[in-house]
Amino acid sequence: MQKTVQTAAPQLSGGEYLSTDERRAAGKALRDKVPRAAHGGWKQDKTRRDPVELLRESNAGRIPALIPIRFGRMSQSPFAFYRGAASIMAADLATTPASGLRVQACGDAHLMNFGGFATPERNIFFDINDFDETLPAPWEWDVKRLAASIVIAARHLNFPESEAARAATGAVCAYREHMSDYASMPALDVWYDRIDLDRVLKVMATEADVQRVKQRVNQARRKSLPESLYPKLVEHKGSQPRIKDDPPLIFHPTEKQAPGMKSGYASAIAGYRKSLPEHVRTLFDRFRLFDLAIKVVGVGSVGTYCAVALFMANDDDPIFLQVKEAQKSVLEPYVGKSQHENRGQRVVAGQRLMQSASDIFLGWTRGENGRDYYFRQLRDAKLSGLIEDWDVTTLREWGKLCAWALSRAHARSGDPARIAGYLGSNSTFDDAVCEFAVEYADQNLRDYRAFIKAIREGRVAVVTED
Q: Could you point out which of 11, 243, 272, 411 has its C-alpha 20 to 30 Å from the C-alpha of 153?
């Protein structure tokens, strides 16, 4: 049985006033209880649960027919397995040392959950882009998941072990150094800080990298336009536009799968509308729902009730919203329940707190089936890393960007001065987390092999895709 981590919420208002220097000193004092070196290494506990059983438990409430697709995607490599195994690592992180400082944590901060996206002002920012597991939790957990993902990605790309360790250490160092910067900044400057396209291009190692990023941005902008998405996703049957079926990845739900279909999901849409800011409601009211279809997305999300919804303001004025089911965070058994009754609201609140700018259509609701959902635009100029094209330099630079975005997110919700005081100015914490990342990558490989064995023995069903 894993223990629940009791960590104090950040004290950013009320209570005794402390200067930045005093808060740094308070953070440094936490090393007496939990030395920075204590974060190093990973050793499997004798009471550690079977990873395959944890994965089975994480399937609770998912669409049964889609679970083999989820496991099929996870079976492709140790890196793909890691992406879908946030529940396993959450249980493991709960057994590791924690400084006692809490932030709004991502909960699944692997390096593929970062990337670019368009802001409401149509600028491109780099930031965290997945918040399904967000919950207040120890800041170290996000850092360790990111660092381990870098080592696992390096092995996936057959890079030398020395380069894997170097990239992980570099990312943790970037987190520490940026956190130190945020600790010295005025509170409003931290809140307004952005990692925009110009800042990303400035840290690119070569001119070729700069041109590649610019090209990807232009492609993403074109592909995310509704007029570009519309002919790919929609067909006309009679007078009504309808989302194209492409089973098993895109299909229209049955009434059992989607109660409320007969009413056009009126109750759920009304709840979503109510969650929007008043000025956005005025814009949303111009649109009407025309169709909704279940759409399989990601790795860890496969099997949850995720859909794409087509709204129209006019015959040539469509918008696509992604509807994602929000389940219990994988962190909840170890840090306690969310303060939000609706799990979709948990995701939205966490995203708005951590992300530098959020989609204007971000909102939440509860369906007639009792499940919680959140809404956002589909493909709003989103850019993810194309890991198969990376070289060592790209991995290092991407890892540093992810760490920068993570430190900025943590500085918004936590106390950057206390975290910076704990981290200090030398590489002690960097080296410790690198050691953890390398050894946890070994653990992930063992878990992956156990998973593949379960597949071969017929204990886990999979469906592989072309």
A: 411
217 and 230 share one domain: no
Q: Which domain holds residue 329?
A: 226-377
The verdict on 112 and 241 lying in the same domain is: no
Q: How many domains does the chain have?
A: 2
Report, as ranges of residue numbers, the positions in the chain whose pLDDT lies below 70: 1-15, 119-122, 205-206, 217, 220-228, 379-383, 466
pLDDT of residue 232: 84
CB 233 within 8 A of CB 321: no
